[in-house]
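Try this one yourself first.
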């Protein structure tokens, strides 16, 4: 008779036995020690509440006006995303590109875009209305109908000045699918009061992105960037204010008077004499003065120690910088302590800003440049028209010189070895002028001349290396007595 295999023994923890029938959890718990989330301890009572600061417009405005940290958190990113401008890449003549840049400055394009980003970060959303002269803002924008001089700039309107159309949304497939089809301007807006604006004439900007259902509760907008750092800001300001009040108690002096209660409860003359004595001590107590007191009186000085307070404030400051996504060297304008100069943090921050530029502004800026081309130049953008955001990190003169030397040596070596042609070398050298400013004087005529010379030169594969060149008939022949061969050499006249 064969024995059946023994079943494995499964030991059930005491917590699971005690909670028979309840849902299992995947976090550590020890009920006896009261450790872990869900047990009877202080940490288990912590949670996150709903504090919709984004909906309190007045509070946001008070914070923006009264808190320099909120002002910097809102303004810094908006300034950095627009202050460097763009580099237009096109086959258009340089004078036309310069005219477009001049038109953008005259119309205040970058200033308006900075305001739009600023109010989107503060309130959670904003729009930029493209101002086209002679067109109805309620109709879809037809770019081909924009004539010369019709584009008049951008008008920033924050989320409290417009009302998105909830029932009418974009149904065309694309990145704008599901977004409002129209924006109704409220009566307190600076322009277009009571008018409806079609989404094709609007550049939509959002603050912090929200999940779909949360976006619905915010009238299809995002969230103010202030909401995520609200509690950290309260802690930082409370610590700062508390430290400021401690300064008044940093140095306290106490004066013990024998029989003080009897004096205060006695005649007014005795109290007057006491107060006059205290005022005299305060008046003459200095480095060169003397303090006179009764032999039974005592005077003590108590000094407060601020040790460790600066570390606490630095930690709160770091949390503020982390909540805003702006490094301390940019937010506070100070270099971090230790061996770090803040350069790596600043470079990383600029990379983040560039990422936000490409995510939030690439499509809108391309539309604006197209409008500028039609309005300032009077023609539609040519094929291959594009742009790149100018880098925020600027190289030093030494770094530019090192890059110019390295690139120049690499290009000239490649040309000397026959890897690239002379015209290609000229193009490569001129291209680096965008970074270093060197070789910017290489013109299109120089490149064309090099290309023509290369086109007239014979193909190296067609040249026979064994072929002997024909002698010139105008030159006399010289006989080599050893080889019995001759070649023509120039005639050298005899010396006089």
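Now uncover the answer:
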């Amino acid at each position: 008779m064969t024995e059946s295999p023994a079943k494995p023994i499964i030991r059930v923890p005491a917590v699971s036995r005690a909670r028979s029938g309840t849902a299992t959890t995947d976090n550590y718990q020890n009920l006896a020690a009261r450790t872990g989330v869900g047990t009877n301890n202080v940490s288990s009572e912590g949670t996150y509440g709903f504090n919709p600061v984004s909906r309190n417009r007045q509070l946001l405005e008070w914070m923006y006006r009264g808190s320099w940290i909120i002002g910097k958190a809102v303004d810094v990113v908006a300034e950095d995303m627009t202050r460097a401008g763009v580099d237009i890449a096109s086959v258009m003549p340089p004078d036309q590109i310069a005219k477009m840049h001049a038109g953008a400055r005259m119309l205040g394009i970058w200033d308006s875009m900075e305001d739009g980003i600023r109010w989107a970060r503060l309130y959670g959303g904003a729009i930029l209305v493209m101002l086209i002269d002679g067109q109805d803002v309620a109709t879809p924008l037809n770019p081909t109908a924009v004539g010369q001089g019709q584009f008049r700039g951008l008008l920033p309107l924050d989320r409290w000045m417009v009302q998105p159309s909830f029932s009418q949304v974009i149904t065309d497939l694309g990145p704008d699918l599901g977004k409002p089809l129209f924006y109704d301007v409220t009566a307190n807006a600076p322009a277009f009061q009571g008018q409806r604006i079609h989404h094709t004439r609007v550049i939509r900007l959002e603050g912090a992105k929200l999940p779909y259902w949360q976006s619905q509760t915010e009238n299809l907008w995002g969230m103010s960037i202030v909401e995520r750092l609200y509690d950290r800001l309260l802690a930082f300001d409370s610590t700062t204010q508390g430290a400021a009040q401690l300064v008044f108690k940093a140095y306290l002096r106490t004066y013990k008077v024998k029989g003080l209660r009897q004096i205060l409860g006695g005649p007014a003359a005795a109290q007057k004499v006491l107060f006059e004595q205290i005022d005299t001590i305060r008046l003459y107590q200095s480095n060169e003065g003397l303090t006179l007191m009764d032999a039974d009186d005592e005077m003590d000085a108590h000094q407060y120690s601020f040790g460790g307070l600066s570390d606490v404030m630095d930690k709160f400051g770091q949390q503020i910088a982390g909540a805003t996504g702006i490094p301390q060297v940019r937010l506070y304008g100070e270099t971090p302590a230790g061996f770090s100069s803040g350069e790596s943090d600043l470079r990383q921050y600029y990379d983040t800003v560039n990422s936000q530029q490409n995510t939030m502004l690439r499509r809108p800026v391309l539309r604006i440049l197209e409008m500028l081309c039609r309005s300032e130049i009077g023609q539609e953008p040519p094929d291959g028209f594009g742009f790149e955001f100018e880098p925020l990190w600027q190289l030093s003169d030494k770094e530019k010189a090192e890059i110019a030397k390295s690139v120049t040596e690499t290009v000239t070596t490649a040309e000397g070895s026959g890897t690239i042609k002379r015209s290609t070398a000229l193009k490569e050298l001129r291209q680096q002028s965008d970074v270093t400013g060197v070789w910017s004087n290489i013109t299109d005529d120089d490149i064309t001349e090099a290309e023509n010379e290369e086109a007239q030169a014979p193909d190296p594969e067609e040249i026979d290396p064994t072929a002997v060149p024909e002698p010139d008939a105008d030159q006399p022949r010289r006989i080599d007595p050893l080889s019995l061969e001759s070649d023509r050499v120039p005639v050298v006249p005899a010396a006089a």
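Discussion: The two ends are 136 Å apart (CA to CA). Residues 128 and 203 are 5 Å apart (CA to CA).
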